[in-house]
Amino acid sequence: MPTGSNEGMTTIQLDTELVTLDIEDSIATLTLNRPDARNALSLDMIAAMETALAHVESVAAEVQVVILAGTGKSFCAGMDLKAVQDDPILMGDMLRRLAAVSRRIRRLEMPTIARVQGAAIGGGCGLMVVCDFSFSHADAKLGYPEVDLGICPAVVAPFLVKRIGAGPARAMLLAGGTMSGTDGYDAGLATHLVAMEDLETETLHFAGKLAKGGAEAMRATKRWLNELDGSLDDEQLSKGAEISAELIQTDEAQARLRTLFQR
Q1: In whole numbers, what is the pLDDT of the chain averaged over residues?
Q2: Between 262 and 205, where is the model more confident?
């Protein structure tokens, strides 16, 4: 739903105002726009992301690179489970929708870059690693604390394994907790570590460099890499969503979440 356009640029403002999409000089920037909640993923935000991704897919021939970003102090603080705390079935639906969005980002034809400032936690860190590249800074807060909350990180696990390898992913997900941007870079969560004040500039500069590459060669390479690493395996990715959705409805998970929400 464009609200305005000019030569070289199209701006999409979604009805929910939870996600914006800008396309300029063949670079699309999809921005999570819920800064007061540190861009926590609500059902409405996930739906808005789906709309934005559908638009990117519809104009794929005009887009060379996609940047995934967040407004405010944080990239994405994870799933907004508090918003659906009284409805574990709805929590499960949210996990399934997040899995579908992650799969859709992974399968975009063009390279994707996560621009990560502040917190990228749980599902937010999942969005970070599902992208082909991720830029962050030393003081960022990254990681997967799901097991600490009684939740299974099955939705994010497949793409973390693909990013850092099975052994390191196993250790990270079972240990839970979070880490600094520097430690996240050393662990492989971020592909680039830059100064916070240079984050936007450096990400855009890198996107511009990618946009100058051969579009068909880039797309063919990405399709082949997705096939090689299992990113096209619907059964595996869907199973992860079901595992997480089932576990979050258990008494243990609900008890831990109630304790968290009461803090």
Answers
A1: 91
A2: 205
Task: List the one residue out of 11, 17, 25, 27 whose CA is nearest residue 66.
Answer: 27
For residues 159 and 154, give the distance between their C-alpha atoms in angstroms, rounded to a whole number: 10
| Sequence letter at residue 242 | E
CATH class of 2-198+214-261: alpha beta
Q: How far apart are CA 31 and CA 114, in angstroms?
A: 10
- End-to-end CA distance of the chain, in Å? 40
- Domain segments of the chain as ranges: 2-198+214-261
> 3-state DSSP call for residue 150?
coil
Q: How far is CA 29 from the centre of its chain?
A: 13
Task: Tell me how crowded residue 254 is: count the other CB atoms within 10 A of its CB.
Answer: 16
Q: CA-based angle 119:121:122, to the nearest 5?
A: 170
Token couple for 55 = 């638009």
Burial of 72 (0-12, 13-18, 19+ CB in 10 A): middle
Instruction: Please state, as a whole number, how many other Cβ atoms lie within 10 Å of the Cβ of residue 141.
Output: 20
Predicted local confidence at residue 263, as pLDDT: 64
Q: Which two tokens stand for residue 61?
A: 């021939």
Does residue 163 surpass a pLDDT of 60?
A: yes
- Tell me which residue of 31, 60, 6 sits closest to 200, measured CA to CA: 31
Do residues 60 and 109 touch, judged by C-beta distance below 8 A? yes
DSSP 76: B
- pLDDT number for residue 1: 40
Each residue's pLDDT tens digit, 32-43: 999 999 999 999
Token pair in block for residue 16? 């929910």
